[in-house]
Write a structure and sequence with these properties.
Rossmann fold; seven-stranded parallel β-sheet; 47% helix; 2 domains; alpha/beta; single chain
Length: 373
């Protein structure tokens, strides 16, 4: 009997984590399958045979992506050949649309079904691509509550599976436990800094976040800033005078009174952890000019996009100054403030809208059902 291969592609750190969870669930449901793909440490640990490491693919911003084009095309040719060979029974794609939509088209041409998990954010920047997605993607597993109806209206077979971060947040510590794990005084006021999960993000956000924290230290005696560092990242202590906590984002959020976050999934993690936050995002000047022309949503933070209103204040590009960020965060550090109480209630509503734990198992079940008989 021919071994069926499921080929999974995750181009970034977060995708690697979610793809690994799907791989484990799929292996438990279907031990007859062979799992291969493009990813990183988490996928390899889950038993996926990697043909390329995603660290070599990751880029941030329109201009940065250009530098990766030659390598992307070489890898694309290799995967296309694999799809045409007949060895792949199902292609599972996670996010990373610039590369993965090309793979989806190649799979469609080769007659290989495509399951797209964590679909491109066409609602933000590319509604014109919906028709193409409907043509080349067999099934979409979406993670934001409004995406299912949006994609189905465009002809995409879409299913809302819930947000995968709920799986990782199922056992959130309480505030006392989180502070004990991190070695933080139970009675201190704590500010969490989340400058990003990629090197380019940290390079652009760290200095202004630290400068904002210094201003707040001057206003709030005894304030304890702490920096959350993503897996695989390092931050030069010379640039950051505060304690760094690695791969412990939920502990940091549960321990903190408020957070200063780079826009992205961390803003939804803050909602799940009920940690009030302020959002900032900086990119290079040319990318910002392009983004202003193509971005079609009024918010940059996922927590606000899901809420469809500004739950957390946002500061983009030149508006993300240390003074502005400090002013916005300060009332959220006060347990008695109306701003903090209002935001905690709003974050609870966002959390409730994200579905229920079990996204990875639901995606694995969809994948199993899509495999040819």
């Amino acid at each position: 009997m021919r071994v069926r291969e499921v080929f999974l592609v995750a181009g970034e750190v977060s995708g690697d984590l979610h793809a690994a969870a799907v791989a484990r669930a799929l292996a438990a449901q279907r031990p007859d399958l062979s799992l291969a793909g493009i990813g990183s440490t988490c996928m390899a640990a889950a038993g996926v045979a990697l043909v390329e490491r995603s660290e070599r693919l990751a880029a941030l911003g329109f201009i940065e992506v250009i530098r990766q084009v030659p390598h992307h095309w070489r890898l694309l040719r290799e995967v296309r050949a694999r799809l045409r060979s007949g060895r792949v029974s199902l292609l599972v794609l996670l996010d990373y649309p610039g590369f993965n939509l090309k793979l989806a088209a190649a799979a469609h041409d080769a007659g290989v079904p495509v399951l797209y998990y964590i679909t491109p954010q066409v609602w933000a920047w590319g509604p014109g691509r919906l028709a193409e997605i409907a043509r080349i993607v067999t099934k979409a597993a979406v993670i934001l509550p409004f995406e299912e109806a949006l994609l189905r209206k465009a002809g995409v077979d879409a299913t809302f599976v819930g947000h995968p971060l709920l799986d990782h947040a199922a056992m959130l510590p309480d505030r006392t436990t989180a502070r004990a794990r991190l070695g933080i005084d139970p009675g201190a006021r704590v500010l969490a800094l989340f400058p990003g999960s990629r090197g380019q993000e940290v390079a652009r956000h760290l200095d202004v976040f630290v400068a904002a924290a210094r201003r707040l230290e001057a206003r709030i005696p005894g304030l304890q800033p702490v920096v959350s560092v993503a897996p695989g990242m390092t931050i030069d202590a010379a640039r950051c005078p505060y304690p760094q906590r690695h791969d412990a984002s939920y502990d940091v959020l549960r321990a903190a009174d408020a957070a200063l976050c780079k826009s992205g999934t961390t803003t939804l993690e803050a909602a799940v952890a009920e940690c009030p936050l302020v959002i900032a995002y900086k990119t290079n000047a040319l990318t910002a000019v392009i983004a202003r022309r193509v971005i079609r949503v009024p918010h940059i933070g996922l927590v606000n996009i899901v809420a469809q209103r500004e739950v957390a204040r946002e500061f983009w590009q030149e508006f993300a100054t240390a003074e502005a960020l400090a002013d916005a965060v300060e009332p959220l550090l006060d347990a008695a403030s109306a701003a903090r109480r209002r935001m905690v209630a709003d974050l609870a509503q966002v959390h409730a809208s994200l579905g229920t734990p079990g996204a990875s198992a639901r995606v694995a079940q969809l994948a199993s059902e899509m495999l040819p008989p």
